[in-house]
Each structure stands twice: as C-alpha cells, then as structure tokens.
Amino acid sequence: MRDWLDSGIPALTGHPDGPPLIPPGSAASIARRHTDGIAAITEGRVRLDGARLLSERAAFTGSRRGGPISAGRHCRLLPTADGWAAVSCARPDDPVLLGALVCADIGDDPWPAVTDWLRTHTGAELAERAELLGIAAGPVGTAAATVPEPLAARPVAGLRVVDFSALWAGPLCAHLLGLAGARIMKVETPVRPDGARRGDPEFYRLLHGGHESVVLDPGDDNQRRALCDLVESADIVIEASRPRALAGFGLNAQEFVDSGGTWVSITAHGRASNGIGFGDDIAATAGLVAHAGGNTPLFVGDAIADPLTGLAAATLAMSAPADGSGHLWDIAMSAVVAATLDTGSATVPADESAVLAPRRREPMGLAAESGRDTAAVLAELGVRPG
Predict the structure, then answer these.
(1) Domain count, the chain
(2) pTM of the predicted model, to two decimals?
(3) What is the mean pLDDT of residues 107-122?
(4) What percentage of residues in the chain have a pLDDT greater than 70?
(5) Rounded distance, CA 236 to CA 320, Å?
(6) pLDDT by residue (tens digit) across 311-327?
(7) Residue 164: which of 90, 84, 88, 218 has the closest Cα?
(8) Where does the record place the region Disordered (predicted)?
(9) Domain that residue 282 falls in
(10) How far is CA 190 from the centre of its chain?
(11) 165: domain CATH number?
C-alpha cells in the first residue's frame, strides 16, 4: 500500500467528487522493482522511483481523476449487454470509426450513440468489431498475464538505439536507455509524426531530451533504403506498432534478431493480435480498474499501462542472451498490466492527507526539432537519402 500512496496514482483514481482510491494489485511495487533493477544494472547511474514515474505525465498536464472517464478525458468505461467495456476516442478520425462501429452518423460527439449501442451488444462483439475497424476498445478484464522474463543483465552504454515508437510507453523505454548511456535516434515518417508532439511540450522534452531526430519517407525508394541501413546499424530497435507496419517499410524483425540485434516490440495485445489500444483502455481491458462501491468500474491513474510497459520494456532491453545472440521481445501492454493484479486484491479508500500528488522531473536537454539530425545521421552511415 505504501508504494501506491507514494506513486501519485490514488490522486488520479476515483470519482472527481469522491476520495482518492488505492487500486488493486501491485503495479506500483513492480514499477519500483524495475527501477531498482535498472539502478543495479547501471551501477547507480540511473536512479529513479518507478512508482512515481507512473503518474508523472499528469504532473505536466494537470489531469485529475474522472471516475469512469479517464484522466486525459479520451476514454470511457461503459456498460455492455454482459458487463463493461473501455472505449477510447483519442485520434481525430476516431469519431468516424466509432460511427462505423454503431452504423450511424454520430457527428462530433460519439458518446451517446456508442453508449446506446453497447447496452445491446456484448463485450466479445465489441472486441471483434473494434479489431476490424482499428478502434481502441474492448471488454474489461479479459487479458492474459504472460510477460517475458529478463535474460542476462547487460550494460547499454554506447549502444545505438533506433526508436520507432510514439506516445509514452516506447519513448519511456528509450528515455531510460538514454539515461543509461545509449545513443537514441528517434525515427518518424513525414506523414505520421509522434502524436505526443501535440501534447504537453515539457513532458515531450522530458522523454526525448538529448535524442536525435530522423525523418525518412519509406514511400521514397532512396529513403526506404536509408531506413533499412539505419536499422542495420542499430544494436536495439524499439517499435510500438503492429508488426505489419514496419514490415511494410521493408524491415524484418527476425532478420535483425538473427544478425544479433535486440528488437523490442511493444503492442497493445501481443504481436499475434491486430488489436490496437492506448494506455487507459488497455489497462481496463487487462482488469486494472477500481471500484468505489457498486459495480461501476473506475479508471486507475492516467494511461497507467504506458509507463508500466515502458519500465518493463527498458528492463528487458537491458538484458540479452548470455551467448551474445539476438532476441525479440514481444511485449503486450495488456499482459504487463494483468501481471500486476493479485488474486483477491481490492480497491481501498485512501486518506487524502496520505496521498502524494503526481510529481514531475525536470527535463534534461532539449528535444530535437523533427528531422533535425536526418542528414548528419545518414552522412555518418555513408548513406544518401535522395
């Protein structure tokens, strides 16, 4: 319980007009074990409090607990015909996709129509349609809890990391590797920059300060080849998209691993799934929800699946087979969350005076403007993007 109280998560959990709640499970304690392990691997160079990292985005954005509405206000917990579901509407095209889900023109506010539709459909029906449409949604509490175990610990100082990830989980992993001395090269495409660039600029700077920024267009043959050359030069690749995305760029994770590299694959529900998700809906579908009396589930923290997964991914990336061979880490965010839930654990009301508020770390270094380092990085490789 002490780890939860220190984490800042109870301040973000519960009804807006109710007391803060201590969530079920041991996510805060597990997060602390991750940062303790990272401190040991780095011989004290990286000392952070994993429990506090779980809530630090809210310290930048000022998000507050919203009960069945997420702290970031983009996800809702809604009743279905057979239980509850989490539905996100975070992207500009999500209202159109949710309209397709319910087969109606729902305008700019999808929630009334989605709420009505869910009452007469099961969680399984929602999950099937959401996967087909690319909607971040699913029934509460249905994820498996299989998470890979670290291998032999290894230092990452001086290693080259190519980071294709976006938002929070993958960038947190890259941030931690960077603090440990790795060289981080963030890669974006011209048409799909990191959506976090539209968020709080100081939080973005916290996760990306000191990293290099490369922008390449895989639709251009020369830049596509340059992208492949950049990946071949890496020791570690981080991706946070469905496998077919980078495969469509001509990048093969298994070939990279066979050549001795470490490929960190972060997905909503595993590489075998085509489902997508964001931190709030993933945590809820994994079963990490709170209750304040009655049956209505409430969100825990702010997109808590993201920092939990970022910590887990960094811990795994700081390990490798003892024989020096490559490894592919298949990290399902929903499984990372589900593994923190203890049988029989329950929500507990917290004394407001004992709950710490989310706390921010000060960013170190500037986040590079998009594409600033493209030419320099490719020149170093002897590659011309065209």
Answers:
(1) 2
(2) 0.97
(3) 95
(4) 99
(5) 11
(6) 999 999 999 999 999 99
(7) 218
(8) 1-22
(9) 75-144+275-298
(10) 22
(11) 3.40.50.10540
